[in-house]
Write a structure and sequence with these properties.
Helix content is 21%, strand content 28%. It has 148 residues and is α+β, with helices and mostly antiparallel strands. It has a five-stranded mixed sheet with strand order 1-3-4-5-2. Strand 3 and strand 4 form a beta hairpin. The two termini are 20 Å apart. The protein binds a DNA duplex (12 and 12 nucleotides) through loops.
Length: 148
DNA sequence: GCCAACGTTGGC
DNA sequence: GCCAACGTTGGC
């Protein structure tokens, strides 16, 4: 799961009540579909994007499965979408809870340097812009080791 | 349904 | 700030 640390960082997540934050504002259908596939207890890499050193800062846990994204119903929200109605929601959110930091931050550059082992990992695909994307088990395990 | 124009993302 | 890569929009 990607976030711009200037807006909301992994440290910010740790400071939230119950170390939990609703993951709202996803407005891409493919990313939304990945969100909806998440199950309670699933783990996610918390990725910092659009910053000085992009990369993985830690591990988070999905603590609530997909529910209608309330920001889509709020005309004052940047993420308001008049086409998403309460009786037919278009956008969804999940609750994300702080899991643990990785011992060493894993820069995107490091991930790229393991491109062979991480072949097929969506984050490394050219032109990738999804804010929520899947991680294969084998990739997950390999990346975790990079952060030890 | 096509496609040009435009907007956004995100690494560099 | 630049720009490639996409997604979305809207005219036709």
């Amino acid at each position: 799961m990607k976030t711009e640390p200037d807006e909301f960082s992994f440290d910010d997540l740790a400071k939230r009540p119950k170390r939990t934050e609703p993951w709202t504002g996803v407005r891409n259908y493919q990313a939304r579909n990945f969100l909806r596939e998440m199950r309670k207890g699933d783990l996610a890499f918390f990725y910092h994007s659009s910053c000085e050193v992009p990369g993985i800062a830690g591990v988070a846990e999905i603590t609530r499965e997909a529910f209608p994204d309330p920001t889509a119903f709020d005309p004052r929200s940047d993420y308001y979408d008049a086409d998403s109605r309460r009786d037919a929601p278009r956008w969804f959110a999940v609750d994300v809870t702080f899991g643990r930091p990785v011992k060493q931050f894993i820069p995107l550059e490091a991930l790229r340097s393991h491109a062979t082992k991480l072949s097929g990992f969506a984050l490394l695909r050219r032109g990738n812009r999804l804010s929520v994307l899947p991680v294969d088990k084998k990739h997950w395990d390999y990346i975790l080791k990079l952060g030890r």
